[in-house]
Design goal:
Blueprint (H helix, E strand, L loop, with lengths): L1 H16 L1 H27 L6 H5 L3 H15 L4 H6 L1 H6 L5 H19 L1 H14 L7 H28 L3 H25 L6 H6 L2 H8 L6 H28 L1
Length: about 250
């Protein structure tokens, strides 16, 4: 555990002490602000029936930066070390493949979670500035944050896997982006084709949009929890085997 913690601390430090991490954080905060502004403008014109937080998580701006978060965070993890030659040194060190993979995953996931803190601060600031009641209840806030963490657990794992496939950060980012767009689109198929075809329940089961909508209302469903956690573990297993193969190949 101590070795894992040291590796995790080193990886997380890269996010928090380099310009790259702060540029990503600033970029996401800026777009989150635009998303909140667009929602407030809609509220001013006409009341919206869903809570403000879900409205912020369903704008086109949200989906734009949400999809790009994962390639940005994960593209360097293995690809950059492979390109620079430091991965080979790491692989010959007295550490296990699991420790290497999981430290990179956990540090990326921690940074991803940090990116969402400003969204919830925006809600608090809105309440403080306007003196109005909170536009979102505590269960709705916890549900929204919970589902974002669950989705992120799987999508970060996908990005780590893509980074382990290549020595090019750009290619890793493109692979991650393509896989995530495909996964999100799969959940939209029932909305496009209707619910009459035989496989509709499966696509509902993996729909990111439906999961966000359900959890942001403060409701809990065990199926998405099982889906995202199991897919995260499975993807990390694939990454472990891929990195392990490269390790013994060298």
């Amino acid at each position: 555990m101590r070795t894992l913690y040291i590796l995790y601390k080193k990886e997380l430090k890269h996010f928090l002490t380099t310009p790259f991490g702060w540029v990503v954080l600033s970029f996401i905060m800026l777009l989150q602000g635009f998303s909140l502004t667009s929602v407030l403008e809609q509220y001013e014109k006409a009341p919206i029936q869903v809570n403000m937080l879900y409205s912020c998580l369903s704008t086109p701006i949200f989906w734009f930066y949400f999809i790009f978060i994962f390639p940005l965070i994960t593209m360097k993890q293995f690809a950059e070390e492979e390109r620079s030659g430091t991965l080979e040194s790491l692989m010959t060190a007295p550490v296990t493949t699991w420790q290497v993979v999981f430290s990179k995953y956990l540090s990326s996931y921690t940074f991803y979670a940090i990116l969402w803190i400003p969204v919830f601060l925006h809600v608090k600031v809105f309440t403080w500035v306007t003196g109005s009641p909170a536009p979102v209840s505590t269960p709705e806030m916890l549900g929204s944050f919970g589902i974002l963490l669950l989705i992120g657990s799987f999508f970060i794992a996908v990005g780590i896997f893509a980074s382990a496939l290549t020595s090019s950060q750009i290619i890793a980012a493109i692979i991650t982006f393509g896989l995530l767009v495909f996964l999100i689109f799969m959940g939209l198929i029932p909305s496009i084709a209707g619910d009459s075809f035989q496989g509709a329940p499966l696509f509902h089961y993996i729909s990111v949009h439906e999961h966000l909508s359900y959890f942001s209302r403060g409701l809990i469903d065990l199926r998405p929890i099982v889906f995202y956690l199991s897919m995260s573990v499975l993807t990390l297993l694939f990454t472990h085997h891929l990195v392990d193969y490269r390790r013994w190949k060298h």
